[in-house]
Amino acid sequence: MDTQPIVIERTFNAPVAAVWKAITDKDEMKSWYFDLAEFKAEKGFMFQFSGGPDDGPQYLHLCEVTEVIPNKKLTYSWRYDGYPGNSFVTFELFEKEENTLLRLTHTGLESFPADNKDFAKNNFVKGWTDIIHTSLRKHLER
Amino acid sequence: MRRDVFQAIADPTRREIIQLVARQSLNLNTVADNFNISRLAISKHIKILSECGLISIRQQGRERYCEAQLSTLNEVAAWVDQYKTFWNKKLDALALHLNKKTSVNKKRSPKKN
Q: Nearest chain A Cα to B73, which residue?
C-alpha cells in the first residue's frame, strides 16, 4: 500500500543558482508553476493560490515556508482551505557538474480527507494538470 | 473519529489483516490465530477496517466471515498517482522554463558563474 511520500528526481541542464531562482522567484514561478501574488524564500512566509478542475470547484491551497537553505533546500506546507490534513513539499538541489539534480518530495498526502469525493475520486489534480500538459504540448509542437 | 481508507492502513496489524483476508475470506477466529495479540484487539482492528470500508463482515451460520473490499484501496493509489502526475507535469514545465532561460542568457550575455 502506497502511503510512502512521493519522490521525483529530475536533472536540469542549468546551474543550481538558475534552478533555485526558478523555484523561488515569483516572476519565474509564474511561467511554470503558479501565479502567486508574492513569494519569499523565508521561513514563515505564507502564500496561497487557487487550483482545481476547469469545470469544478477551485481549491484554495494554503502554504507556509518551513525551511530554507539557499540553493539547496526549500520546504513548504501544502494544505487546502476548509479541509483537514496537511502535507509538505520539499525541493532539494544538488550540483552535478554543470547540471542540477532536483529532488522533489511530497509527504503527508494520506492526511487529506479521502471521503471528499473531489479529493478521492474526481481527479481534481489530474484535471488541471491535463490543461498544463495540453498547453505544454502545444508549446513544444509549435 | 476519522474513518477512511488512509486511517485504516495506518496501522501495521491492520495492513496484515487486509493482506490475509485479501487471499481468502476468513472467519474472525482464523484471522486472530495469525496474530500474537488478543482476540479482542483483533476484533477492534476488524471493526475499524469494516467502518473504513476495507472489510465487509458476513454472517454465515454462527460464524462471521471477513471479506476484503479491495476497491476501496484503489482510492489510495489513485490519490497518490494524481500527485505524481501533477508534479511530473510541473517539473516538465520547469525544464522547459529553464531551457528557455538558458538559451536567452546565451544569446544575450555570457554566463557569469
A: A1
Min CA distance, B24 vs chain A (Å)? 18
Q: What residues in A contact B77, CB-CB < 8 Å?
A: 2
Orientation angle between helical segments A16-24 and B71-108, nearest 10 degrees: 120
Tell me, what's the ipTM?
0.72
Cβ neighbourhood burial of B54 (10 Å; 0-12, 13-18, 19+): buried
| pLDDT tens digits for range B39-95 | 999 999 999 999 888 889 988 888 889 988 877 766 666 667 778 888 888 999 999
Provide, as residue numbers in chain B, all residues whose Cβ is less than 8 Å from the Cβ of A121. 75, 78
Each residue's pLDDT tens digit, A77-101: 999 888 888 889 999 999 998 899 9
How far apart, in whole angstroms, are the C-alpha atoms of residue B28 and residue B57? 9
Chain A positions touching B87 (Cβ under 8 A) are: 6, 8, 104, 106
Using only the alpha carbons of chain A, give its radius of gyration.
Answer: 16
